[in-house]
Amino acid sequence: MSCASAHCVGFLNSNRFLVALNIIMSIHISAKQGDIADKILLPGDPLRAKFIAENFLEDAVCFNEVRNMFGYTGTYKGHRVSVMGTGMGMPSISIYARELIVDYGVKTLIRVGTAGAIDPDVHVRELVLAQAAATNSNIIRNDFPEFDFPQIADFGLLDNAYHIAKEMGVTTHVGNVLSSDVFYSNMPERNMALGKMGVKAIEMEAAALYYLAAQHHVKALGIMTISDNLNDPTEDTTAEERQTTFTDMMKVGLETLIAND
C-alpha cells in the first residue's frame, strides 16, 4: 500500500471513530448532530453562504469551516434554517448534499446559484426555477447506463417558489435547465441548440442534487439568478455582484423553505 493510500485509510478510520463518538458526523462537514436544520439553502459560493447568514438569518452560528466551505444555522422569521456552500460542479455538490441528507437528516434542500441564459427570452438578473435538469454528466449514467433517469424538482417547492417570486414582482422563468460538467465549452453551439428547444439556462449542479433527492426521498429545488447571457455577452455581472447582490433569489429561497412550516 502506498503512503498516500495508507494515509487515506488511516484518515477514514479515525474519522469513523470520531463519528461513532458523535464528535463529528461526516468526512467533509465538521458539525455535530443537531447543528444543522432540516431545511437548507445551498449556494455554490461559500462567501454567498456567509452573506446570507449575515444579512438574512438571526442568531446565525457557523457549523462548518472545513475547506472554507462555510455553513451556518440560524432563524429566518422564527424558523430554524441552515445555509452552506457546496462548491462548483456536480461532484462537489454531490459530496456535500449527500452528507447533509444521510449524516445530518436534512429533508429540504434548495440550491441558490447562478446560471447562464441560453433561451433568448431569458435575461440577466431574472430568476429561473429548474423544473427539470438535463445533463451531459455521467454521474447518473454510472448507475443507470441503459437509460437516462429524469432529474426533476419537488413540485411543492417549485409551486411555492413560483408564487412567492410572482408576489415579489420578480421576473421568473420555469422550465428545463442544462447541468453541465463543462464551464468553458469547446462546442457552445450545442448549448445554444438546447436554448432553441426551450432550455432556459446552463448551470453545473441541479441534476446531481435532484438525483440525490430522488435516491433519498427528500425534497430539492434549484433557484438560479441569471448572471450571464450567452445570447448577448454585453449582459453580464461582476464577481462581487454574483456574491452579494442577487438578493431576490435568496429571499425566494428562504421564503420557500419556510412556506409549509
Quick structural gist:
The chain is of the alpha/beta class. The protein has helices spanning 3-20, 46-56, 90-104, 155-168, 188-196, 206-216, 239-244, 247-258; strands at 39-42, 58-64, 71-76, 79-84, 108-117, 127-135, 172-179, 201-203, 219-229. The protein has a single domain (33-258), classed as Rossmann fold (3-Layer(aba) Sandwich).
Task: Please outline the helices and strands.
Layout: H1 3-20, E1 39-42, H2 46-56, E2 58-64, E3 71-76, E4 79-84, H3 90-104, E5 108-117, E6 127-135, H4 155-168, E7 172-179, H5 188-196, E8 201-203, H6 206-216, E9 219-229, H7 239-244, H8 247-258
Parallel strand pairs: 1-4, 1-5, 5-9, 6-7, 7-8
Antiparallel strand pairs: 2-3, 3-4, 5-8, 6-9
Helix pairs in contact: 3-6, 4-8
Description:
- By secondary structure, the protein is an alpha/beta fold.
- The chain has one domain (33-258): Rossmann fold, CATH 3.40.50.
- 37% of the residues lie in helices and 25% in strands.
- The protein is built from eight helices and nine strands.
- It has helices at residues 3-20, 46-56, 90-104, 155-168, 188-196, 206-216, 239-244, 247-258; strands at residues 39-42, 58-64, 71-76, 79-84, 108-117, 127-135, 172-179, 201-203, 219-229.
- It has a five-stranded mixed barrel, surrounded by four helices.
- Helix 3 packs parallel to helix 6 and helix 4 packs across helix 8.
- The protein starts with a helix and ends with a helix.
- Residues 1-14 have low confidence and may be disordered.
- It holds the Pfam family PNP_UDP_1.
- InterPro entries: DeoD-type, Nucleoside_phosphorylase_CS, Nucleoside_phosphorylase_d, Nucleoside_phosphorylase_sf.
- One of its GO terms (cellular component) is cytosol.
- Homohexamer; trimer of homodimers.
